[in-house]
What does this fold into?
Amino acid sequence: MSTEITETNPAPLSSFELAQRQAKALSASDLVPQQYKGNVANTLVALEIANRIGASPLMVMQNLHIIHGRPSWSSTFVIAAINGCGKFTALRFVGDLDKGIKAVATEKATGETVEGPAVTMAMANAEGWVSKAGSKWKTMPELMMRYRAAAFFGRLYAPEITMGMHSVEEVVDIQHEEPAGVAAINAKLINPTPE
It folds into this structure.
């Protein structure tokens, strides 16, 4: 009878199990924002997003906000991610409050200057951003124009960074109105009248 001990390697953890363990540890931290604290599911989503864009999970959790049930990036994160992605020179803003502001950078691979759409106060007024209760467009219009210009630039030239998500400011500015007739249809589905 042999007294030789054979070493067995436990099966490696699946990537999902590992992610769950990471999410549990991160969600227990005092450094994560409230929407992740004790919430393994939200933290797992943040880990997935961090993995997809190649960013630090903590950075994603500190800059990914849930507004009206929709995930959205802080505008400062969008600007930092564009500046740090290596595809462009640092993002610059050209224009002024009267004529509009656009985000501009040079694409490093081609040397081509690329610019996003101009954001104007006329646009902000027409879209209803200025008239919303508590709107920062009234008190900080130039900063809001720059944030919106950065978000537009990111969606056009670096969608892999924003992953199709809007900035916090954009989500706050979205008007929540149902098209005509939808409310009536929903009411009938919820409270059908007996025939």
Summary: Residues 13-66 form one domain. The chain is about 45% helix and 10% strand. Residues 177-193 have pLDDT under 50 and may be disordered. The radius of gyration is 23 Å.
